[in-house]
Amino acid sequence: MIIVNRRDYIILNEIVKNPTIKDKYLIEKLNLTKRKLDYSIEKINDWLELNNIQPIAKKNGKYYFEKEVLKILQVTDEENIMLFHTSRERIELVLLVLLTSKEKILLSKIAEELNVTKNTVLNDIKIAREDLKSLK
Fold first, then answer.
1. pLDDT at residue 11 above 50?
2. Can you tell me the distance from the alpha carbon of 115 to that of 74, in angstroms, rounded to the nearest whole number?
3. Choosing a second label site near 12 at 20 to 30 A (CA), which of 38, 106, 116, 133?
4. Which segments of the chain are extended strands (E)?
5. Domain-ending residue, one of 43, 66, 84
6. Which ranges in 1-66 belong to alpha helices (H)?
7. What is the mean pLDDT of residues 73-102?
8. What is the CATH number of the domain that holds 66?
9. pTM higher than 0.70, yes or no?
10. Quick one: which of 38, 64, 68, 41 has its CA closest to 52?
11. Domain that holds residue 100
């Protein structure tokens, strides 16, 4: 199973599609800082190394990577790739579910769907509640 967050997956996908992609483009497209982009690439490289794949390297404005990285991105089966939502995405999803569902909603079901613990969902609900209060 491949476990990455959504941003890292998008960055990796963009780099593989276009190895000459400019950092500036990624920063603007994904609304990142240079530091966040560097951190994401560092996390991607850590994950690649853990899986015995050479990390992505950048030289003369071009990204270099092994063919194994292409195989990772060819995995499209949802059971084989798990994208984690950011905190803000989770909060928005929890709000969406809570505000639109006509049925009883189990905390454990939300946690399972978001691939997080029940405590994380409770914390997200707490933040969502504060967000709603600020709208008054």
1. yes
2. 22
3. 116
4. 2-5, 57-59, 62-64, 81-84
5. 84
6. 6-17, 23-29, 34-50
7. 74
8. 1.10.10.10
9. no
10. 68
11. 87-134
- Residue 111 sits at φ, ψ, to 5 deg, of -60, -45
79-82, Cβ contacts within 8 angstroms, sequence gap of 24 or more = 79/1, 80/1, 80/2, 81/1, 81/2, 81/9, 82/1, 82/2, 82/3, 82/115
- pLDDT tens digits, 99-130: 898 999 899 988 888 878 899 999 999 999 99
C-alpha to C-alpha distance for 3 and 83, rounded to whole angstroms: 6
What type of residue sits at position 27?
I
Report the distance separating Cα 84 and Cα 68, nearest Å: 22
Verify that 37 and 62 share a domain, yes or no: yes
Confidence of residue 38 (pLDDT cuts 50, 70, 90): very high
Contact 48, 69 (CB under 8 A): yes
What six digits make up the tokens of 39? 């951190």
Number of domains in the chain: 2
Q: What tokens were used for 104?
A: 């009883």
